[in-house]
Amino acid sequence: MKEKNNISNENVEILNGVEEIKESFEEELEELVNKNMGKKLKRVSKRACSNNLLELLTTETKDTLKIIMDNLNISYKSSDKKEVLINNINENYKNSIINLSKCMNLECYDVMEILCKNNGILLMEELDEKMDTVVFMEQLGIIYTALKDNELYACIPSQIKEILSEIDKSKLVYNSEIIKLFKGMLYYYGVLTIEDFMDRLPQDVEIELSLDELDMLLVMEEISTEEYIYIDGLGINSLMDNEEQLEANVNNSEKLTDYKKLTKHEILKACGKEYIGDRKNYKELEKFIKEFYTITEDNFDEMLISTYQSYQRLGQNDLIKDMIEKFPVPQYIQDEFTIVMNEVCKRIPVWSLGGYTLAENNTYVRSDKEVKVGRNEPCPCGSGKKYKKCCGKNA
């Protein structure tokens, strides 16, 4: 029997490429969050559970009130006193939320609906699975945290119940699909401007939002879920793990003139959080790893994400070389490992190739001399399938 090597938590992240500057930033961010949380808890402890907007706003600081007003597009003067800010929010609240709802996702609606069904006040722990959305909705002045009997509660103003009946839920479902399409494209392209997103949509998809409305929708989704990065109209795959790689991909995307055309089904299939492709793409690697190493399912999943990240950053040859060195892979199985990894790499869409896989890039798409392949002939990518059922599906 072959002796298996142990893969521990320490070495499972093979080539995660996380820079020291990122670790330093995360430490500073954690310190800042803890500091702000202390201030927030002081305000929360003074707030009674209520559905009265004026009462809920009273415990907020002027700075927080201005953040809410900025997010709700309510104007104010820098010299305005706290009472003026509160009254201004109260007067414009309903119309501002209705306007904002045009760019909301379905998750925000669901949270509001849950709270309304519970008379606008609910134990915060009941919303644990939606906490990212809850925190985001606090910044919008929709949810307010209160303390009662040493328990945290989520409260919404009574106006929300009135507003909810006026919101067209079908439009939020539509918004959520747009977001899924954007996230799915980021799996293939790595980076994507809002204009390129519109240009590359499949013919059977129409978006009725203006660019400004689409921009607001993508901003709100990024803040509420953190499933991708969105800066000044540029979407970035959340698995892109350093600034150097980002700069290289942005520069490359500006030069590329040929991108893989995607179907709606392909895009929606790729919209999941930290999606790295169909699990079957990694079947040979999974078989190899579990034959020669001892590894938990969680660690194997982390390893796949790390492998995907490193492949996008390093390319096929350098990825395999680094994995052999850092895994480590013993000499007697290195050839087998290389064959396995070559097969895996052929099936992953490459950001620098405009979403094409290596198999597609090396056969019928990107060579100077086009390769003619009959639809019923074996696919040149080596999958064993007919061309029409493999790389020729979208040709």
TrEMBL record:
<feature type="coiled-coil region">
    <location>
        <begin position="15"/>
        <end position="42"/>
    </location>
</feature>
<dbReference type="InterPro" id="IPR004027">
    <property type="entry name" value="SEC_C_motif"/>
</dbReference>
<keyword id="KW-0175">Coiled coil</keyword>
<dbReference type="Pfam" id="PF02810">
    <property type="entry name" value="SEC-C"/>
</dbReference>
<protein>
    <recommendedName>
        <fullName>SEC-C motif-containing protein</fullName>
    </recommendedName>
</protein>
